[in-house]
Amino acid sequence: MLKNTLLILGLLVGLCATAQDNSSYFYKPFSIYKVKGEQVMAGSVNTFVYKDYYGKNIQKEPHGNAHLKPEYLVYELFNDMKNKDFNSITTLYDSSFKKDNFDKKWMTDKLRDYADIKLRSKFRSGDLIIVRYDFVSADRKKSFPFFAIVKKAGDGYYLSADIDTADPFNLIGSLSPDNHFERGDESIITAGMTPFYFIRKEDKILLASGIPVAGQNDEDYTTLYLRLESYDKKKVPAPIEELLEQMQRTAQQDDTALFKNFVIAGDLPLLEQEHFHNYYYAGLMRIFKNYPMITPLAGLKINGGEVLYFKFADSLNSRIAYIILKNREEKYSLELQFKDEVVSNILLDDYIVEAIVGYLKQP
Question: Per-residue pLDDT averaged across 306-323, rounded?
Fold first, then answer.
């Protein structure tokens, strides 16, 4: 679902907004992923939720300039799309707008049944604001979700087609129930989870060492909470230790036919693909063959197993990697890819990978 949401953001150039305003924002942890009812992943982002705020309300606000506020831009875009005024649409965007990427037919067909917009929420990403809104029919019984990105240029705000879906603000924010309403809202407790605080400064995403100062534009942050179980404080389960030892012994034989026996049957066909073949044999098998010290560092539960982060080292070097373990009756095998899309998007994100590795390197 997340990938589809981000795909809409990337392909449908039509909805985007950014700005700083006087709205009331708040941080509230929300659920991202659970295993057997236990909270394993959670997030928070600086969010503002609108209350019954429609295009007709914006229409009553005298402004005369669509570039004064993100909300004005979004509503002006809707009107221009309804009126098929393509020339006016181009004036709402910054230089990232590409005419060839704008689907006029989609615009005409999609908006035929809609008479207004309803603004739902927005979350702040440094000096950016991502606006979440719906197209709504005249009787308000039909709606279609959309997003908008706005960037500030000089004294005004402009729609933009420029978005980094790997940015933790966008990645985590898109999973908030205040922006992704199908996920549902619930109160959660993050005690016992490891927080990773991301801030945006000078167009760079940085990892903060502690909770940033809220309320300052250059200190807005988004948080990812992970229930990492440290194997410094908890004994490694015997079946996992046994699996790692078996993998080391088998890798020493340099026999790919034997080493593939650790992979679950359902993933074996993936080894015929170049990406997975290289990962498993040139990458993982080499690690277990060439590095004598394999040390489990932490585990993160996923449905049916866990993600095991481990350190591999010799007398000169050490690095951190992970494997995906499938648990069947206390017997562990390897999976070659994440089966859950949300888990995959979170744990394979470059910013998040770097943050987790940095955390695990701490003494």
Answer: 95
